[in-house]
């Protein structure tokens, strides 16, 4: 790489703008991680009290973890696509269908998944 190329790279506004977005998303990542830990604790307490997890929390946890993954991909240069709010919030589809249900609970479900815990 010659000096002219280096100078061009350093003065390119594209790189500096990405740095601003990276700092913004790094802060958002910290907040999202905090929300995830709160979600983990609430889901555990809910499960402890009721004996089963909350499907709404599970769906939100799935979409939040997908969002965290999208942010990490952007920060690591694995993706040029900026995550939410510059893109849609990750969908939470296929969350309930992929759950492993204990055999004791599976017999009580009308649409029980094929997969059961051993």
Q: What is the structure about, briefly put?
A:
The protein is mostly helical and 118 residues long.
Order of secondary-structure elements: HHHH
Taking Cα atoms only, what radius of gyration do you get, to the nearest Å?
A: 21 Å
Tally of alpha and pi helices: 4
Strand content: under 5%
Structural class: mainly alpha
Shape: elongated
As a percent range, the share of helical residues equals 55-70%
| Distance linking N and C termini | 58 Å
Low-pLDDT stretches: none
Q: How many DSSP E strands?
A: 0
The whole-number mean of residue pLDDT values reads: 84
Q: How would you characterize the largest beta sheet? A: none
Question: Can you give a write-up of this model?
Answer:
With 118 residues, the chain is mainly alpha-helical. It has a domain at 12-91. The protein has four helices and no strands. It has helices at residues 3-11, 13-50, 55-75, 103-106. Helix 2 packs antiparallel against helix 3 (55-75). The longest helix has 38 residues, at 13-50. The chain is elongated. The N and C termini lie far apart (58 Å).
């Amino acid at each position: 790489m010659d000096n002219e190329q280096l100078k061009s790279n350093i003065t390119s506004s594209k790189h500096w703008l990405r740095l601003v977005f990276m700092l913004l998303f790094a802060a958002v990542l910290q907040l999202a991680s905090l929300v995830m830990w709160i979600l983990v604790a609430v889901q555990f307490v809910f499960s402890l009290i009721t004996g089963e997890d909350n499907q709404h929390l599970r769906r939100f946890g799935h979409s939040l973890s997908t969002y965290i993954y999208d942010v990490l991909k952007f920060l690591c240069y694995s993706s040029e696509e900026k995550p939410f709010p510059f893109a849609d919030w990750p969908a939470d589809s296929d969350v309930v269908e992929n759950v492993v249900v204990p055999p004791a609970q599976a017999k009580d479900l009308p649409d029980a998944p094929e997969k059961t815990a051993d």
